[in-house]
Design brief:
Blueprint lengths: L10 H8 L3 H10 L4 H23 L7 H17 L5 H13 L1 H7 L6 H13 L1
Length: 128
């Protein structure tokens, strides 16, 4: 999947939706010097987390399992370390977006049908 990310493709949409937020400001500061290769590597890391979610889902784990909750923490840390402070409120919103926005849902479900819904439900448990 390396190289399969085009951040500039969504820049205008992101700026319109979140441009006035502290998280967006932090994102622009952190990512200012990221190369295409760095974006691709970060996308690969994120996809690896979603693949791990899919793997445990297919093994029969539930969204409230220790493994799923550990992956939610790993996802939150990845976002915070590389993009912006990912509070539980922000994380909960991302979880919803992973299922409500078809672009995200389809991309995440490439790891296995139902992965986006599983991730969303695991995030809901974590954020309660």
């Amino acid at each position: 999947m390396t190289g399969n990310i085009e951040p500039q493709k969504y820049t205008a949409e992101a700026r319109k939706r979140w441009g006035n937020t502290e998280a967006y400001s932090e994102y622009t500061e952190k990512s200012r010097g990221y190369s295409k290769e760095q974006y691709a590597s970060l996308a690969d890391e994120m996809n690896d987390i979603f693949t791990q979610f899919s793997d445990i889902m297919q093994k029969g784990e539930k969204p409230d399992s220790d493994e799923a909750q550990s992956l939610v923490m790993k996802l939150q840390k990845h976002i915070a370390d590389n993009y912006y402070t990912c509070t539980k409120d922000i994380l909960a919103g991302l979880g919803q977006m992973y299922t409500l926005d078809e672009r995200f849902k389809n991309n995440i479900d490439k790891n296995g049908d139902g992965t986006a819904e599983f991730v969303c439900n695991a995030i809901k448990v974590y954020c309660k």
